[in-house]
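Re: the 240-residue chain
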Amino acid sequence: MRIAAFSDIHGNLSALEVVLADIGQHAVDHLVCLGDLVALGPFAGQVVERLSALGCPVVLGNTDAWYKEPLPAGWRPADERQAMVYDCHLWLKEQLSPEQHTYLLSLPFQQRIGPLLCVHGSPRDFREGMLPDTPEEELAAMVADVPAGIEVVLCGHTHHPMRRQVGKLTVVGVGSVGLPADGDPRPCYALLEDIPNGWQVEWPRPTYDVEAAVAAAQATGFPHLDTIAEAWRSGLGLAA
C-alpha cells in the first residue's frame, strides 16, 4: 500500500497544485489531507473547492476550526501577530461561500486508513504539535490512546517533516504544503509505502513560482500579504 499525505495548505493554492501534480506522478492507493486548508493565505475558497472536488479524506485542522468555534465574546488581540491572524480570519470569513463553510464544518477530527491514523496535531488534540524534538515521554503520552492495530500516526500542524518511533508505533510529520517552517520554502508532503520490514517514508519537495503566487495574491486584497509573502519565500513559517 502506498499513501500520499499532505497538510497545512493555508490558502496557498499554487503550492497545493504543484504538490498534487507531483503526487500524480506516483502510483498511490490513498490520498489524505491532514487539515489547515484555510487561514493565513488568500486562496482559501479555491483550496476548499479543489479538495472537495478531489473527494479524498480530509481531517479538521486547528485553523479550520476557527470557522466552527467563534471567538469568545469580548476577545481582543494580545499582540501584533495575533492581530494579523485575526484580520486574516475576518477577511476569509467574508470570502468563503456558505457551501465552503459547510465543507469546513463537516471535517472530522481524525481518519483511519487501514493501519494508519490520520490527525492534524496529535491523536488527542488538533492544537498539539508532535515535533522532531518533543521529549519522548511527552510524545508517548500524546499517542497513548491510539487504537489497537494502528502502526503509523500521520500528523501535520508543526509544519516540520519528521519520523519518530514510540515503541512499535511510527509517528510521521508530513510537513507543510503552503507554509513550510523548516527553512526550506519548497512545499512538503509525505509518501509512505508498506514494505516487508515496516514503512518506508519519503518527503518529496517540488518547487513552484513563489513570486508568481505573490503577484496573483496581490489582486485579492488579502490583509498583511507582505508578511505572508515573506513566509512563503523564506520557508520559516508562520505557525498558527
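The first strand starts at residue 2 and ends at 6.
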